[in-house]
Amino acid sequence: MGKPGTAWTPEEDQLVLSSTKSAQELSRELQRSPQAITGRRYRLRNPGTAYQVNKRWRKNHPDRRRRDKNRHYDTGEGPKHNEYQSWGQAEDRAITASNRPTDRVLAVQLGRTVRAIQNRRNVVKSLSIQPPAAGQQTKGK
């Protein structure tokens, strides 16, 4: 029948829904992973848009969602050496550059959190602050 990465057929959907076999057993029969069988079975039994399914999952698993969200924003580099420090022009240039690395890489380089970098970028863009080019003097300095 199906192979990983291929569309599910109506026959496979019927088998997944009506079978009393475990996902492990069906995975061998359908040549799909047990996770794919479990996910397909869930989506067939709980119809709705992906948004509705995700919203239901987030409501039922707030602790896992929070943990995953925090893990995404964590740089994993211990205490931030620039915590509570003002942002400099060089940092503003680094976070707004068109060829910048990912926010996670910037967080490690600048000693800030991913969330701090994203917040500062939004502030810089919303205020239309254009950091001066490297080597350019600003007024009063």
Shape: elongated
Beta-strand level of the residues, as a percent range?
A: under 5%
SSE order = HHHHHHHH
Main beta sheet: none
Strand tally, please?
0
Structural class: mainly alpha
Termini separation: 72 Å
How big is the Rg? Answer: 24 Å
Mean pLDDT: 81
Uncertain parts: none
Helical fraction: 55-70%
Number of helices: 8
Q: Secondary-structure map with pairings?
A:
Elements (H helix, E strand, L loop, with lengths): L9 H9 L4 H8 L3 H12 L4 H11 L1 H12 L15 H8 L6 H8 L3 H13 L15
Would you mind describing this structure in some detail?
The mean pLDDT is 81. The protein has helices at residues 10-18, 23-30, 34-45, 50-60, 62-73, 89-96, 103-110, 114-126. The chain is elongated. Helices cover 57% and strands 0% of the residues. The chain contains eight helices and no strands. With 141 residues, it is an all-alpha fold.
List keywords for this structure.
single chain, 141 residues, 8 helices
Give a brief description.
With 141 residues, the chain is mainly alpha-helical. The chain has helices at residues 10-18, 23-30, 34-45, 50-60, 62-73, 89-96, 103-110, 114-126.
